[in-house]
């Protein structure tokens, strides 16, 4: 099961959840909400059973990998966060009468002494027998592939047979526009070394396969808040001072203007 151990703001709410956060929950147990992938949803709803052990995977962070183990304490039931319009993972197409998304409850079992990084995980042959690894080799059906090339970058999307290709191309173009505004003439190295930022921007724009936010300014403002939160946390941890230049650039301000906004 994948989680994000570092702060990320969506709709003004921090969606950070690490294995330490799970351990700190009452009875070290929490619902696993916010899954908005159909294949993962099917596992949660149909396959995962009480007593199953799961790997707690830290994602979108400096060192992604397995952080520990948890155990399923409650089998799949409707993810009620999808019904709440104020929640980061709200989905207007999901309702109490016809729930679209499901979740399970998990309990902390063990934290590893170190993170098992992705490169090391891939070396273990036992993973080939795991459900998620098998799923990666399954052929997709009833899916169209839409892509668009910008210089040397390819942006690819898989959509349903009934989905509009032109609309998908427009969404890809808007995503690239936001990336270009954020990075300043985006290139391969930007996406390689700051891939988590590309994910953050995508999550602000698209949820459950639907366009949620088309405004470039709104998306960049939220990412600026995320940068500010991250910079404050780094400062508190002794990792360096606030990166005012990066935060100001994201908010489309000069550093001087950004400092002045704090003094008002």
Could you walk me through the main structural features you see in this protein, from its secondary elements to its overall organization?
This protein has ten helices and eleven strands. A five-stranded mixed beta sheet has the order 1-5-6-7-4. A two-stranded antiparallel sheet has the order 2-3. It has a two-stranded antiparallel ribbon with strand order 8-9. It has helices at 19-24, 38-47, 118-121, 131-135, 165-183, 188-193, 195-205, 216-236, 244-250, 255-263, and strands at 2-3, 9-10, 13-14, 29-31, 53-58, 65-78, 102-117, 143-150, 153-160, 206-207, 210-211. By secondary structure, the protein is α+β, with helices and mostly antiparallel strands.
Topology:
Layout: E1 2-3, E2 9-10, E3 13-14, H1 19-24, E4 29-31, H2 38-47, E5 53-58, E6 65-78, E7 102-117, H3 118-121, H4 131-135, E8 143-150, E9 153-160, H5 165-183, H6 188-193, H7 195-205, E10 206-207, E11 210-211, H8 216-236, H9 244-250, H10 255-263
Parallel strand pairs: 1-5
Antiparallel strand pairs: 2-3, 4-7, 5-6, 6-7, 8-9, 10-11
Enumerate the spans where pLDDT stays under 50 for 5 or more consecutive residues: 132-139, 247-256
Q: Please give the radius of gyration in angstroms.
A: 20 Å
- The beta-strand count equals 11
Roughly what percent helix? 25-40%
State the end-to-end distance.
43 Å
Global geometry: globular
H-E order: EEEHEHEEEHHEEHHHEEHHH
Report the biggest beta sheet as strand number plus sense, adding barrel if it closes: 5 strands, mixed
**Binned strand content:** 15-25%
Mean pLDDT: 80
């Amino acid at each position: 099961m994948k989680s994000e151990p570092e702060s990320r703001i969506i709709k003004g709410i921090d969606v950070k959840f690490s294995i330490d956060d799970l351990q700190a929950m009452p009875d070290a147990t929490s619902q696993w909400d916010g899954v908005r992938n159909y294949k993962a949803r099917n596992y949660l709803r149909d396959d995962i059973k009480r007593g199953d052990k799961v790997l707690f995977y830290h994602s979108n962070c400096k060192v992604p990998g397995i952080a520990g183990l948890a155990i399923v304490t409650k089998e799949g039931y409707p993810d009620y966060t999808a019904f709440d319009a104020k929640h980061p993972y709200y989905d207007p197409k999901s309702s109490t009468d016809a729930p679209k998304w499901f979740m399970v409850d998990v309990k902390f079992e063990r934290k590893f002494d170190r993170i098992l990084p992705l490169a090391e995980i891939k070396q273990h042959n036992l993973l080939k027998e795991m459900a998620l690894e098998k799923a990666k080799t399954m052929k997709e059906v009833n899916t169209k592939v839409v892509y668009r090339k910008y210089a040397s970058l390819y942006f690819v999307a898989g959509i349903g047979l009934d989905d509009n290709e032109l609309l998908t191309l427009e969404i890809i173009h808007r995503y690239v526009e936001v990336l270009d505004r954020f990075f300043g003439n985006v290139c391969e190295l930007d996406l390689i070394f700051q891939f988590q930022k590309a994910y953050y921007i995508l999550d602000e724009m698209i949820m459950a396969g639907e366009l949620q936010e088309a405004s470039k300014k709104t998306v960049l403002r939220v990412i600026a808040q995320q940068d500010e939160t991250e910079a404050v946390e780094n400062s508190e941890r002794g990792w360096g001072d606030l990166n005012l230049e990066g935060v100001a650039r994201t908010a489309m301000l000069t550093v001087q203007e950004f400092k002045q906004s704090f003094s008002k």
